[in-house]
Amino acid sequence: MLVTLGELKDLLLRFSWERRDWPREDVQREFGALVLYIMQQADRLGVDLVSAGESCVAQQATNVPTLVRSKVELDA
Q: For residue 33, which phi and psi values (nearest 5 degrees)?
């Protein structure tokens, strides 16, 4: 079964909600296995996970709307 990265992200979101009542140790074991798998695949494909993460954070920071506006902006 092939899954796209987008589908994997959706599955992880569902997993986190469905497993919230699991014992913490079980959830940690599942996420640990997932992290190791992702690290192995990234290494195999030549993906620098730290750079990828930093790039993602930078991109998301530009997409987040400003929630708090300055008094000057509100008075304009």
A: -60, -40
From residue 3, alpha-carbon distances to 11, 15, 46, 52 in Å are 10, 15, 20, 20
Report how far apart the first and last C-alpha atoms of the chain are (Å, whole number).
Answer: 55
CB atoms < 10 A from the CB of 38, how many?
13
Whole-prediction pTM value?
0.57
Domain residue limits at 64 = 5-75
Contact between residue 30 and residue 19 where contact means Cβ atoms under 8 Å apart: yes
Number of domains in the chain: 1
Residue 3 has pLDDT above 60, yes or no: yes
